[in-house]
Design goal:
By secondary structure, the protein is of the alpha/beta class. It is 25% helix and 34% strand. It has ten helices and 19 strands.
Length: 392
């Protein structure tokens, strides 16, 4: 599609009218572009502007199985692909109920989209979607102009990469705000590396330099598996081919043990990862029989810290983890930012640099959550399938 874009689309159009503005709209298949001919790495320089597809189906009942946080994640990724030239978000009403349709607008606009495009006229002209969206856009207009720039955890998501597909969007659904970029974010304080980050052949050198200067890195069990023995310089933690069922978890390390034990709603299958005692330090473990198994570990390298997050075989089982475990995971990701969410799963958090925060609950019931900083705690009640804007 690079050749087609240049020689059969943009080139001929510019020849007829050098002032024409050519825009390419990408679908929502970020982890599948390279399997379907799309090449954002080259096309970003061929087209004048980009447009992002933020249509997101129900991950349970549709073929695309895309987590709902992807709407925000994809917008931020394309903003980093071609800064200032990501024109807007484009979504439709297919396979949507009314709540899901409105959510597409929320996530698209919370990402600081310049505009939205609704697809398509024929499917919308006699639907209930447009009156409902019109009402919601009026409400959103009251504060959208007041939002600052997003503050998120940097994710290294290279072009043409594969592995642990959409995992970041599952984690985004538990209240971790992400800013994905196809370029290694050397200027960040903390970065997240899932298995797809390992597609970069220079990733170990980049990781080493980042840690030596004092950055924090969170890697997944999938990244650890892909790197294999190449990680021996950085940590004693090893991926194995074993599996374990866990529903009892221990948190809050104290001396050589833990001070709190909590249960999940059902047993969850995790890979077994191993480590050397007193070389790497567990923050969360799962317990089965007379043994425990790491869920979150910490290690040190140079001036930096490296964390390993063990990912369940079914990514959606992340939602089944006890609230106390989710809180510890959130705290680790957001330690450098200085604020994190305490509460249920399926609550998305959007942070901005002018002390504004948006919490959006995707739960079908009312829930109470807490925003926790070093200085204070803010208690918030969230209504079902709703959002709230908070001044921090």
């Amino acid at each position: 599609m690079t050749e087609i874009s240049q020689n059969y689309v943009v080139g001929p159009a510019k020849k007829v009218n050098p002032k024409v503005n050519m825009i390419i709209k990408y679908p929502n298949w970020i982890d599948s572009y390279h399997q379907n001919g799309y090449n954002p790495e080259t096309q970003k320089d061929i087209f004048d502007e980009l447009y992002t597809g933020t249509e997101t189906r129900d991950p349970k009942y549709t073929q695309q199985h895309l987590p709902r946080y992807l709407r925000y994640y994809l917008m931020r990724w394309f903003e980093n692909v071609k800064p200032g030239k990501n024109k807007g978000g484009w979504f439709d009403s297919f396979e949507c109920n009314l709540n899901q349709y409105i959510e597409q607008a929320y996530f698209t606009l919370f990402s600081k989209a310049k505009e939205i495009t609704l697809f398509d006229f024929n499917s919308l002209r006699r639907s209930t979607f447009i009156p409902a969206l019109s009402l919601e856009l009026e409400k959103l207009d009251e504060y959208l102009s007041e939002l600052g720039n997003p503050i998120d955890v940097k994710v290294y998501h290279p072009f043409h990469s594969d592995g642990e597909n959409h995992l970041s969007s599952y984690l985004g659904m538990i209240g971790i705000p992400f800013d994905p970029t196809p370029y290694f974010p050397n200027d960040a304080d903390i970065i997240f590396l899932a298995e797809n980050s390992a597609e970069d052949k220079e990733i170990l050198n980049k990781l080493k330099g980042f840690l030596l200067k004092g950055g924090d890195v969170i890697i997944t069990s999938g990244f650890l598996r892909r790197m294999g023995k190449n990680m021996e310089e950085f940590t004693s933690i090893r991926y194995t081919d074993k599996k374990v069922l866990l529903n009892l978890f221990a948190i809050d390390p104290a001396m050589s043990g833990f001070s709190k034990y909590v249960y999940s709603r059902k047993e969850i299958i995790f890979p077994v990862i191993e480590y050397h005692t007193n070389s790497s330090w567990p923050i969360i473990v799962g317990i089965n029989g007379e043994n425990n198994f790491p869920i979150l570990l910490r290690d040190f390298y140079g001036k930096g810290r490296i964390y390993v997050l063990n990912i369940p075989d079914n990514y959606s089982d992340i939602y089944l983890l006890p609230i106390e475990v989710l809180n510890e995971i959130r705290k680790t990701f957001l330690n450098k930012i200085g604020i994190y969410l305490q509460g249920d799963e399926k609550i998305c958090m959007f942070l901005y640099d002018n002390d504004l925060c948006i919490l959006e609950s995707l739960l079908p019931y009312r829930t109470n959550v807490t925003l926790k900083t070093k200085e204070k705690e803010i208690n918030i009640r969230l209504e079902p399938n709703s959002y709230k804007v908070i001044k921090i």
